[in-house]
Write a structure and sequence with these properties.
single chain, about 325 residues, globular, binds (3R)-3-hydroxy-3-methyl-5-(phosphonooxy)pentanoic acid
């Protein structure tokens, strides 16, 4: 039995985070510069059913049987075994590595789940189709953050730019004119579940205000798609600024994110906003390609731990 490997990219949300949990559209793109990778290999000396999990990036080395079934890595393995109706897995090692920063809005949890589901199902001789991979990963996303919209597992499964609305068929779209996005990490880990939970409580306390804010975000996202499809990505800049202002009102920005957004704008970015759950994690800036290096330098001077430049095309 050969070893099976699967890799998956990270992702960023260009527009619509948080509002997407409440049925408004969002736009997300894969980020190929960071990757999760899982290798499943046979363990010829192991007892049938003994599955060893190695995840050195998070300091985890454990037998599957030692982890609670609700542990996200264990849940991926159990979900594949259930989907394929396999009671006892062959003795194997599941080794997970990733360059996607954790709790940073780059989709690390979904990417890891997708690589486990793909590599294990292929190892077992029944590679699962994308729609099933996406569905299983969504179930695991619920363990990561309670009430996910499903955008992370969708954009990462299909590795394409998506225009995503909860519970609706996935829509991808054309990008006739490429554009450059700089991603800058505050270095502050911010679990999505906490931000999503706080927004839910705020929405419950003040549904009229929050629905208005979500509607405004949804309106920007729709216009952003039109601008991208019309080959006018430069128009996205002011839309990113408006989206960021709404995320501030929703209560998910932070001084560090605002500082990086301001630094990007002062350095000549066309627009900037936080991306993902917020509170920490990453911000993104729309930049002219010839300015990317200079603006990345300014973002690092302003405190960014790392920058990634990615082209959407
Ligand atoms: O995983 P993150 O941090 O990129 O956040 C996902 C975006 C949210 O809209 C905040 C949550 C969701 O499930 O869509």
């Amino acid at each position: 039995m050969p070893a099976f490997t699967a890799t998956a990219p990270g992702k960023i949300i260009l527009f619509g985070e948080h509002a997407v949990v409440y049925g408004r559209p969002a736009i997300a793109i894969p980020v190929a510069q960071v990757k999760a990778r899982t290798v499943v290999s046979l363990n010829p000396r192991g007892e049938p059913g003994s599955v060893q999990i190695q995840a050195p990036d998070i300091g985890l080395e454990a037998a599957l049987s030692q982890l609670p079934v609700s542990h996200p890595l264990a849940a991926c393995i159990h979900s594949v075994a259930d989907a394929l109706d396999i009671r006892r897995l062959p003795a194997c090692t599941v080794r997970i590595t990733s360059t996607i920063p954790v709790a940073a809005g780059l989709g690390s949890g979904a990417a890891v789940s997708i690589t486990i589901i793909r590599s294990l199902s292929a190892f077992l001789g029944h590679p699962l189709p994308d729609d099933q991979v996406c569905r299983l990963a969504f179930e695991v996303e619920k363990l990561h953050h309670g009430t996910p919209s499903g955008i992370d597992n969708t954009v990462i499964t299909y590795s394409l730019p998506v225009y995503f609305t909860r519970d609706q068929p996935i829509q991808t779209f054309h990008v006739p004119k490429a554009f450059t996005i700089l991603i800058a990490d505050t270095g502050i880990a911010s679990p999505t579940a906490a931000a999503v939970g706080d927004v839910r409580r705020a929405w419950q306390a003040n549904p009229v205000l929050y629905d208005m804010l979500f509607d405004a975000v949804g309106g920007i996202t729709r216009k952003a798609r039109q601008a991208i499809e019309a080959g006018r990505p430069q128009d996205l800049g002011p839309m990113m600024e408006s989206n960021h202002a709404l995320l501030q009102q929703i209560g998910v920005s932070s001084p560090e994110l605002d500082c990086l957004v301001d630094a990007a704008m002062s350095a000549g970015a066309l627009g900037a906003k936080l991306s993902g759950g917020g509170r920490g994690g990453n911000m993104i800036a729309l930049v002219r390609p010839d300015q990317a290096q200079k603006i990345a330098g300014k973002l690092r001077e302003a405190g960014a731990m790392r920058t990634i430049s990615t082209t959407v095309e």
